[in-house]
Specification:
By secondary structure, this protein is of the alpha+beta class. The protein has one domain: Nuclear Transport Factor 2, Chain: A. It has 4 helices and 6 strands. The relative contact order is 0.13.
């Protein structure tokens, strides 16, 4: 009887301790990722593609909303360069980390975003908001880099086009 009680006590202590360690890890990862997201936002707004891409693994995969997959850092760089050449400039990017899920050397981040950008021939910035999922990979030096990312808008593009068409009709 004493042995069963002692075993149960040890199990409770082990589970409690593991839960504390896991919680601290989640908090640490979330803090690190939020800091990296701030750096990412700064680089986007400054148009610093190289600093932005330094946060990605060489074999990163990007799956943007309404566009084909970009497989590898070269494909992500090419797409970023094309976007810059087209005149797109980011004026705001605010990611909000909602959940962090560590699993081995990968950490899944789930969040929401707000973004604003200007494009040639636009009177005012285009704004968007939505959700994203990023898988971060722990590097040998302990740092994190983006391994996989995907995001999509909460704004229905058809309703946005209808609103833009309506605004154009109102001007006539």
């Amino acid at each position: 009887m004493k042995r069963t009680f002692l075993t149960a006590c040890v199990m409770i202590v082990v589970l409690f301790t593991a839960n504390i360690v896991f919680s601290q890890s989640n908090t640490d990862y979330k803090s690190t990722i939020e800091s990296m997201n701030k750096e990412m936002a700064k680089n986007m707004i400054e148009g610093n593609t190289e600093k932005l891409l330094s946060l990605y693994t060489d074999d990163a995969i990007s799956m943007p909303s309404y566009q084909p997959i970009r497989d590898g850092i070269a494909a992500i760089r090419k797409s970023s360069d094309e976007e810059t050449k087209s005149g797109v400039k980011y004026t705001l990017f605010v990611p909000t980390t909602l959940k962090v899920i560590p699993n081995g050397n990968m950490i899944t981040e789930i969040g929401t975003y707000k973004i604003s950008m200007t494009m040639p021939n636009m009177d005012k910035p285009m704004e968007d908001h939505g959700k994203y999922l990023t898988i971060w990979e722990k590097q040998k030096d302990g740092s994190l880099k983006v391994k996989v990312e995907t995001w999509n808008s909460d704004v229905d593009p058809m309703s946005m086009m209808n609103q833009m068409g309506q605004k154009g009709a109102d001007k006539k």
